[in-house]
Amino acid sequence: MNVLVIEATHNIDDARACLQHVAASGHDGLVLLAGETDAMAGIAEAIRTSNTALRAKAASAADLTATLENLDARTPVAFLPRGAAFSQPEWSRVTRLPHSVMAWPIDKPLPEHSCSEPDSTIEGWVMSADLARLVLVGRPLSRWRLSMLGLALEEKAERVHWISSPNVAPALHAPAAAEPKVTRSARVVAIIPHFACERWLAAALTSLTRQTRAPDGIVVIDDASPEPPADICRRFPEVTLLRSTDNVGPYRLTQQVINDTGYDA
Fold first, then answer.
1. Mean of pLDDT over the chain
2. Are 183 and 114 spatial neighbours (Cβ–Cβ below 8 Å)?
3. Can you tell me the distance from the alpha carbon of 123 to that of 37, in angstroms, rounded to the nearest whole number?
């Protein structure tokens, strides 16, 4: 089973259209159309008139809390922010590990160039129910967006597994030659460009060292921070710390490590 929480708009027509979109995708889990207590009547009307076979319910904040408490620990729970268009997440990615969370792009296109940022913030997510109970109970629905859960997830960083979320950038040019496929036997290096980000570095390294298929090498390359993160890196014997003499930006640092090493990926 999976549980989809949709943050309902105040517009009944929009809520109805969202439910119809979810149904058309073939979604077969429980759907909770959630909103404030005073909006429950309108939400229930949207469900009743949506003419879908969804297992859908109107849910207040209290209803959501009760639902989370009754779920099996690895049941995946997804959050669709208000106004976002639904696309099926890969639910099974979250069920593999306890206390796991995956950002949910929800059809957000990746930029055509690697040095540019996506055009909007990704606020949807999929979590295992055990983690959802830890970070969501007592939190108003308006603060369920991924950008607002950062501190709560950081506080539990030793227990949280961040799962990579699949998304595909446009293929602008065909490769010059066929490249061999990357297999589990390939040698893989993980590269972390770093500049004065000590607050997050330990959590990032912990995540990398706990992957189900650990990298063959992990490189932190410091971009001339006031102080390199030597103390943090010493806690991870498998990590190599390099330092740039000049501040040159993450893309040049990453490319330099790729050029100077012989890993497959």
1. 87
2. no
3. 23
First vs last C-alpha separation in the chain:
35
Mean pLDDT of 8-21: 88
What pLDDT, on a 0 to 100 scale, did the predictor assign at position 199? 85
Q: Where are the extended beta strands (E) located within 95-135?
A: 100-104, 124-128
Residues 198-220, buried b or exposed e (16+ Cβ, 10 A)?
eeebbebbeebeeeeeebebbbb
Q: Tell me the C-alpha distance between 15 and 11, whole Å.
A: 6
Instruction: State the pLDDT at residue 160.
Output: 84
Structure confidence by residue, pLDDT tens digits, 109-163: 666 666 556 566 789 999 999 999 999 988 888 899 998 998 788 777 567 888 8
Q: What are the C-alpha distances in Å from 66 to residues 61, 137, 138, 256?
A: 9, 9, 11, 51
Q: Which pTM does this prediction carry? A: 0.74
Spatial contact of 224 and 247, defined as CB atoms under 8 Å apart: yes
Which of 220, 223, 194 is CA-nearest to residue 209? 220
- DSSP single-letter state for residue 70: T
> CA-to-CA distance for 80 and 124, rounded, in angstroms?
5
pLDDT at 51 over 70: yes
Alpha helices in 70-166 (DSSP H): 92-95, 129-136, 150-155
Q: Give the span between the Cα atoms of 189 and 34, in whole angstroms.
A: 43
Residue 216 has pLDDT above 70, yes or no: yes
